[in-house]
Amino acid sequence: MCKTIHATDTQERSPEAKARGTPIALYIHIPFCETRCPYCDFNTYEGIEPLMPAYIDALVQEIRLWGSFLTQGQDTPLPQPISTVFFGGGTPSYLPPENIQRVLDAARAAFSLAPDAEVTLESNPGDVTTTRLEMWKAAGINRVSIGVQSLDDGLLQLLGRRHDSQAARQAYQNARHAGFDNLNLDLMYGLPGQSLAQWRSTLTDTLHLAPEHISMYCLTLEEGTPLDAWVRQGKVPEPDPDLAADMYLLAEDLAGGAGYEHYEISNWAMPGRACRHNLIYWRNQPYLGVGPGAHSYMGGYRFANLKSPRQYIQRVNQWADKGAMPLSLADLRDGGPLDTVDAIDAPTEMGETMIMGLRLGQGVSEAGFQERFGVGLRERYGPQIDELEQLGLLEWRQSWLRLTPRGRLLGNEVFQRFLV
Ligand code: SF4
């Protein structure tokens, strides 16, 4: 349920006024997958490929719409600066590659894309071919994230992945040969029936490849997914959380030993290669999301687009046909592609800053918090911090508050203390 947005709210705290001049991140959602993996609950669909051309048209329209919206009211319109772009999904690599160029061209025309912007594209190994890599590179992609998930063929089959371990290695080599020097590999652990030895083998082989960045996610059984049903029906063994914790500790040990910095709960990077785009989320800084179901955070509001690709296309086209410039987020909700708009008050923003910032290895800065909110961390959260320190879940390192190694395993225990 959205809060009511009054005209005065949007005048005083409008995204265009608040974000002006501050570089933001741009997330571009691609809701297509060749087949759906049985564990996935993302906003993505198989079998809707005929929508692709209309979808790309709508995406380009939405980008133009935001480009104008974020400069309105300025005497000399200056385009909104963008520091990072992230094509996520779904499977962005599944799009015919010329579309990536078209969408990035639209973003360059609508916004001011920094010359050193980090521009990431998520991919599935089977799509990472020499031809596509060359086209992505020519379009401006400079970071490729490959959904490897495992280097064990049996587990890849269980996960319903379309690739085997050899295809994953080949994708990585193809990207290297094409000249990409900023690669991420996504891995999953805590899988049904996965042994510590299998995980060690995937980890060792991945570290041997030496990508700049590795994301390692513990499998979550999402309600309503086929994998969740198989586990409930006893067709697939239930994942063991204690074993998953051992896998996490092994990852910390082996990745740390190989020179990776554990800079976020689920992310490891070579020095200087942390994902700049995701850092913007974890630092609770502004970003714009385009495409169905994409979320944004700007000017004191969180807002999200309609999830259905068909409805999204329809509503973007309605706006384009009107030829009218939206004056507020409420306009974009009432007839535009937005579904929800929520005003974020200061206590909520503080809590979110804690929950996201504590995911980072360095934690939350006392000085940064004071500067942003005009109140100190101890002043605002004294009792919570004391209790969590006593439980051994939080610690101070100089003037940064961060999770302890035990706190990283029990993150949710910590985060709930900061919910308003
Ligand atoms: S490829 Fe990725 S986004 Fe698509 S269904 Fe599988 S896990 Fe989900």
Question: Can you characterise this structure?
Answer:
With 420 residues, the chain is α/β, with parallel strands linked by helices. The protein is built from 18 helices and 15 strands. The structure holds iron/sulfur cluster (SF4). Iron/sulfur cluster binds at residues 33, 36-37, 40, 42, 44, 89-91, 124, 147.
Q: If strands are numbered along the chain, what order do they take across the biggest sheet?
A: 7-8-6-5-4-3-2-1-9
Provide a count of the helices: 18
Tell me the name of the CATH class of the largest domain.
Alpha Beta
Shape: globular
| Major sheet characteristics | 9 strands, mixed
| Proper CATH architecture of the largest domain | Alpha-Beta Barrel
Q: Which molecules are bound besides the chains? A: iron/sulfur cluster
Q: Give the low-confidence spans.
A: 1-13
Secondary structure: helix percent: 40-55%
In short:
The chain is α/β, with parallel strands linked by helices and 420 residues long.
Topology, pairings included?
Blueprint: H1 7-12, H2 15-19, E1 24-30, H3 52-69, E2 81-89, H4 98-110, E3 112-123, H5 130-139, E4 143-149, H6 153-158, H7 165-177, E5 183-189, H8 196-209, E6 213-218, H9 226-232, H10 241-257, E7 261-264, E8 267-269, H11 276-282, E9 287-290, E10 295-298, E11 301-305, H12 309-322, H13 329-333, E12 338-343, H14 346-357, E13 364-365, H15 366-373, H16 377-390, E14 394-397, E15 400-403, H17 405-409, H18 411-415
Parallel strand pairs: 1-2, 1-9, 2-3, 3-4, 4-5, 5-6
Antiparallel strand pairs: 6-8, 7-8, 10-11, 11-12, 13-15, 14-15
